[in-house]
Design brief:
96 residues; alpha+beta; Translation Initiation Factor IF3; 3 helices; 4 strands
């Protein structure tokens, strides 16, 4: 689990990122979870935007993504979800 200080650090890092995934009408599916998992392995920290036409609320989407990818939820702000997962081969972020 991430501590408060670590979450603040990750939020500041994520501020400059653009969302690279969008959750839309279809919601979260296996393929999306797999792709997000691979992107987390490559980048460790990423943003996902929840589109207006998504049938699930953003907290449900965040919960499903966290369970599917075994990542840490850094924050949900507006329609944007920030996820972090330490990379095994490609470690770039040193947590405080």
């Amino acid at each position: 689990m991430l501590k408060g200080k670590q979450k603040r650090f990750l939020r500041s890092k994520a501020h400059h990122l653009n969302p690279i995934f969008q959750v839309g009408k279809g919601g979260v599916n296996e393929n999306m979870i797999k792709q997000i998992g691979e992107a987390l392995e490559a980048r460790e920290l990423l943003k996902i935007s929840v589109l207006q036409n998504c049938e699930m609320d953003r907290d449900t989407v965040a919960e499903q993504l966290v369970q599917g990818t075994k990542a840490e939820l850094v924050q949900v702000i507006g329609n944007t979800i920030v996820l972090y997962k330490e990379s095994r081969e490609n470690k770039q972020i040193d947590l405080p």
